[in-house]
Design goal:
The protein is α/β, with parallel strands linked by helices and 281 residues long. The protein is built from nine helices and twelve strands.
Length: 281
């Protein structure tokens, strides 16, 4: 893996005419100094959350919501209904690192069903880092659902290290709420109607002590978060694949009135996969 942006002494070398060129070209080597396997600690440093303020008005954000998504060159956010076929080993390393940095992973019910979601697993490589940050052994999984149409016999609900959260509306069916709670899930109301209001969901998670938030979609949920203006950061893997077809984009639903501008923070590359990180301007 190598860093393409921001340009540093490691990623670029100064040519004789004063311009910058790729370090691999400048050194005459087949691979630049950054073209190597990155340790998990290096990835964690590269994707660290910004410093969060303890309370509103303290100078920093109280919570930070980032999304992690993958897309093909022609804009497909999945293939045959799943994201794994367009992913890579490096993408999965970053996927695991982003989970390890988060307090909670927010995911839509349809994605839980399609991707066969399981509870987050404890990883020894990140245990010390999470303990130092005051985090539990793994992030909680928070499922966004209006209908609570989920299989509560799955390990996501029966055997997580920390209870799985269900984000739903106040008008959700009482019998489904009771079923979720009986299975061991914690139901959190984040909307006055049947569905979830994104800003309310973020606030509810903050009130539970979760401030480093990560969403893994799917497209419908990400579209709702974008439309509500609550997404702070997008970590987007661009896969060097073309799939054609009618697969969903990474974000769906109604378009926003005015496109939202995000600024590029960093760009990594490995085997043709681009790992970009954008923050809201």
């Amino acid at each position: 893996m190598r860093r393409l942006f921001p340009v540093t002494d490691e990623t670029a070398a100064k040519a004789a005419d004063g311009t910058f060129e790729d370090a691999a070209v400048a050194s005459g080597e087949p691979h630049g100094p950054g073209d190597r396997d990155w340790s998990l600690a290096e990835l964690a440093h590269a994707y660290a959350y910004p410093e969060l303020g303890p309370e509103p008005g303290s100078g920093g954000p109280v919570a930070w919501l980032r999304a992690n998504m993958v897309s093909t060159l022609d804009g497909a956010g999945q293939h045959d209904g799943r994201s794994h076929p367009i992913s890579s080993a490096a993408d999965m390393r970053i996927f695991g690192t982003l989970r390890a940095l988060a307090d909670v992973v927010v995911v839509g019910a349809e994605t839980v069903r399609q991707e066969g979601y399981r509870p987050a697993r404890e990883r020894a490589e990140f245990a010390g880092m999470r303990e130092a940050a005051g985090q539990g052994p793994v992030p909680a999984i928070a499922v966004v659902t209006a209908s609570l149409d989920l299989d509560f016999s799955l390990p996501l609900f029966t055997s997580p290290l920390v209870p799985t959260l269900i984000l739903t509306g106040a008008a959700a069916a009482p019998d489904r709420v009771a079923t979720a709670e009986k299975a061991g899930a914690r139901v959190v109301v984040a909307g006055d109607g049947v569905g979830v209001e994104p800003a309310r969901a973020v606030q509810a998670l903050v009130e539970l002590g979760h401030t480093r938030l990560l969403t893994e979609g799917g497209p419908r949920l990400l579209g709702q978060l974008v439309a509500a203006g609550v997404l702070d950061e997008l970590c987007l893997t661009v896969s060097p694949l073309l799939t054609a077809g009618d697969a969903q984009r990474i974000a769906g639903g109604p378009s926003v009135a005015v496109p939202q501008r995000y600024a590029l923070v960093s760009l990594l590359e490995e085997e043709g996969f681009l790992f970009s990180r954008y923050r809201r301007s």
